[in-house]
Amino acid sequence: MTLTGKNCCICEKCMRTLYAILAEGFSPEEFGFPMTQEMYQKHLEMLKNGEIQIPVIFWADIIKKLSHNQKLQDTNPVAKYLVEKFPQYGEKYGVVNYPTRISYFSSTDVQADDVSHKIGSKVIMFKSDLNLETKEKAFQSVGMNTGNQVFSSSLEKILNLEVSPWNKIQKDHSQLNDIKAVVTTDLIWINQNSNFDYLYERLSKVQTPFVPISIGLQAGKLDPDFRLNSSCLKVLSAMQERAILGVRGEYTASILEKHGITNISIIGCPSLYWTKNPDFQFEKKEFIGKKVLCNFRTFYGNLTKSEKHYLTYCANRNYTFVEQTSLPFLISSVNDSRFYNYINNWLIKNTKLYFDTDSWRTGIRGHDFSFGGRFHGNVICLWENIPALFLTLDSRTQELTDFFHLPSIRMEEFDREKPIDYYYELADYSEFNRHYKEKYLNFREFLRKNNLCE
Question: Tens digits of per-residue pLDDT, 189-221?
Fold first, then answer.
């Protein structure tokens, strides 16, 4: 950044932010980065000669998303260089963001009223082992977002999954032919540039049904013109010939149907079925202690006015902040050094980070309320009977809160003048409770139709 407050476009922080914007499918120019082809070539030269050193712990997620976009790699020399320089972070090279789950079944009878009973005597979920050697390796092992642990641990509990590393069958896909079904979560985050050729390659080599759980589109709003690219359509079309596809919400379902993907069932997210009890009701307690948890989206791009108000509101009250991703809060997101220093000092003192659900649940116990934009960050609070208000920021969160009738407001509706008691009162779970059994039984029926339970 320059002394005038404008983006210099050549420091590591500016580069990290603008390539994160590119990775999300947006134009850096729209966010205050006046880029030209000459500037991109300058970046390439600086990277190659070591003039700019990139901390990979902050770039891993960006490189992973750049690897999805072949068109960008063909037209942008830096995107191509980063993907080829760091292949271990690119999904097309075999390191997947949300590891595939492989489930083995036989013909054992099950009880119809319990989805935790499996058809087979053994159910295995292949995913990376948690690696806590360094923070970078820890994030890599959970798919660069700790919220994935809430999602995957729910599946483990619901289906009694045993966990094993994917590399046991990575070199020989033919082993899948002896498996009754493959449960995959690779499609929970789809943007218009997502590349799933690696998944189609696995699918095309075997006859085994691949059952995707919670397919979800990623858009800033519920865009009715969202386009699925050829790579995504190819794998979804192949999957729907063998299994019913589990979709997160009405929005994703409507877009899939427009593209001819019709063998679907709207199931929401398995993290809300962790109870394994169709009669579950969330009982909201009295707001006494007022110990509050907060959470926020990944720190990339410029913050909106309401987002600044929300962060200031939380910092003023010294709330505990639960982080889920590795990208740091940068001054380039706000272009205001005073605001940046205030929020950053609060984050340094009050941020908590959990890489497994057991420590996460232990760490949040004793709190009275959670509010923020992280879906799984709020859901895990429900596991500990902590009421949560969801501040929706994008299509994925909104369609999930709509589907489950979870209490929510749009982030732009946040009013910094309201007391925390006001937001606590908005966390009304009466509609969630009224519809929960219906959602739960629908999810169980989805599992039954895919032979994952009877």
Answer: 998 888 999 889 888 888 888 899 999 998 877
